[in-house]
Fold:
Amino acid sequence: MLPADVLTGTPPQRLYLITCWGGGIPGQAMTEPVTVATLALVRGSVEVLATVGEYGDSGDGDAFARWVLEQRRTTDISASRAVHVASKRILDLPGS
Structure:
């Protein structure tokens, strides 16, 4: 998905781009001027969770994403709180 793709549709109310550089511009590291995340907010999303760094395809990374999404689906906590709780869980794992 490219930023231009968001301009032609209606994004969901809550959009989670939990992928490597999901909040960045495709092909350009360390940038954030106009991204899928930014345009989704402009086009009507009320909440966007997107990574702006490297997101490892690992067991820990998968667990983190599952914990964030599970909390958002099953509780009424905010996205920022869900990220905080999942981050603490990752840091509490043996070997972290």
